[in-house]
Design a protein that fits this description.
The structure is a single chain. 57% of the residues lie in helices and 11% in strands. By secondary structure, it is an alpha/beta fold. The protein has one domain: 3-Layer(aba) Sandwich (Rossmann fold). Helix 1 packs parallel to helix 7, helix 2 runs parallel beside helix 7 and helix 4 packs parallel to helix 5. It starts with a helix and ends in a 5-residue tail after the last helix.
């Protein structure tokens, strides 16, 4: 197979995963954006976590809210729990790597806040621990997962919102997640600052 054909295969697989996810998860994306906008409107914040590429996605999402996405507007309260190297390493050293996000959720989260938990497999133990800590404090949880939702899917309660990428390959799941993140940013902006919004 020549290299251009490989590129074509990647684009085709990405497009297919995004189309399948839209059909299955479109209403969940809207529901998550409505939840986030409503909580931000009330003065709450969004905490975001994930590992590896999902850590980069967590930081990307928080940056789009704190700074701006595609329109000029005031900054919105979001914190990526992946960025404080001193907190991450001290928690991992003194407790366990599984607790690196949960300890931050417990310290920073307040009832009414939202946790955006990102795990391509749905099996990240530290992301699952963060979701458990969030639940205990009265935070709402929005989870971006893939494949079959993993162990996280087994722990969700009715109030949680799972947006599951309709893909198996990690790269395809991550590509869907970044599109979902951009959709959430756009819908939050529209709900809070679109025409007719206060």
């Amino acid at each position: 197979m020549d290299l251009l054909q490989r590129v074509d295969r990647h684009f085709a697989a990405s497009f297919e995963a995004k189309q399948r996810t839209l059909r299955a998860m479109g209403p969940q994306i809207v529901r998550a954006a409505e939840l986030m906008a409503e909580r931000l409107r009330r003065g709450n914040k969004i905490l975001v976590c994930g590992n590896g590429g999902s850590a980069a996605d967590a930081q990307h999402f928080a940056a789009e809210l704190v700074n701006r996405f595609e329109i000029e507007r005031p900054g919105l309260a979001a914190i990526a729990l992946t960025t404080d190297s001193s907190a991450l390493t001290s928690i991992a050293n003194d407790y366990a790597f599984e607790q690196v996000f949960a300890r931050q959720v417990t310290a920073l989260g307040r009832s009414g806040d939202v946790l955006l938990a990102i795990s391509t497999s749905g099996n990240s133990s530290n992301v699952m621990a963060a979701a458990a800590a969030a639940r205990g404090l009265g935070l709402a949880t929005v989870a971006l997962t893939g494949r079959d939702g993993g162990r996280m899917a087994e722990k969700f309660i009715a109030e949680d919102i799972e947006i599951r990428a309709a893909a198996v390959a990690t790269a395809r799941i991550q590509e869907v997640h970044i599109l979902v993140i951009h959709c959430l940013c756009d819908l939050v902006d529209e709900l809070l600052f679109g025409e007719g919004q206060s």
